[in-house]
Specification:
CATH topology: D-Maltodextrin-Binding Protein, domain 2
Helix content: 25-40%
Largest sheet: 7 strands, mixed
Distance between the termini: 81 Å
Structural class: alpha+beta
Order of helices and strands: HEEHEHEHHEHEEEEH
Strand content: 15-25%
CATH architecture: 3-Layer(aba) Sandwich
Number of domains: 1
Length: 190
């Protein structure tokens, strides 16, 4: 009876090759495109991400979204500016940022306008929101105000002395309708 014998080196090479092939093929086979992914960047001490992700998925799956990415970073984090530039400005579709930070941006060049008429028509009271405008367009909408209005509909912990605004990244591949729908789903009604 013939027995096939393999040296340990042959088995090691076969396993190594299989692992290498899997590490290359697997991420490509299950990778979602930018159009199928919605990325939120939130400046916060804490966010209940599970509930937020479930709410967004239930609202946005019919619109073609298959994956939600939520990045939250404390404004006091020593690496906040790095996270903001790499995960926020370069990757995220929707950002929740402190107003003091937005004062440094040219809103027109960095963010998409927000369709507030759509938001007001979905049951939100325009008198309870503060907006930041440039050239007559609304580019930022308050989501948390230190004066007392808290429009964020999920368990969170913002710095109570800072106002926070939501903006849409100009580089987002998503249409404003999808971004506005996502915004409505994360806000609580008055």
């Amino acid at each position: 009876m013939n027995k096939v014998r393999y040296a340990w080196s042959h088995i090691f090479i076969i396993v190594l090759f299989a692992s290498l092939l899997w590490s290359i093929v697997y991420p490509q086979a299950f990778k979602y495109s930018k159009a199928e992914t919605l990325h939120l960047f939130i400046t916060s001490e804490y966010i209940q991400t599970d509930d937020l992700e479930n709410q967004l998925m239930s609202e946005l799956t019919p619109l073609g979204i298959k994956k939600i990415i939520i990045t939250y970073v404390s404004y006091d984090d020593p690496y906040y500016s790095t996270q903001l530039l790499t995960q926020g400005i370069l990757e995220a579709d929707i950002l929740i940022l402190p107003k003091v930070l937005l004062d440094d941006f040219n809103l027109l060049e960095q963010f998409k306008p927000i369709d507030t008429d759509y938001i007001w028509s979905n049951g939100f009271n325009s008198n309870h929101f503060t907006t930041l405008t440039q050239l007559g367009q609304i580019y930022a909408l308050s989501i948390y105000e230190s004066s007392g209005y808290d429009h964020f509909g999920f368990n969170h912990r913002f710095d109570e002395s800072i106002d926070y605004y939501v903006v849409f990244n100009l580089e987002s591949v998503h249409a404003n309708f999808l971004l506005n729908t996502a915004l409505i789903s994360i806000m609580k009604r008055d």
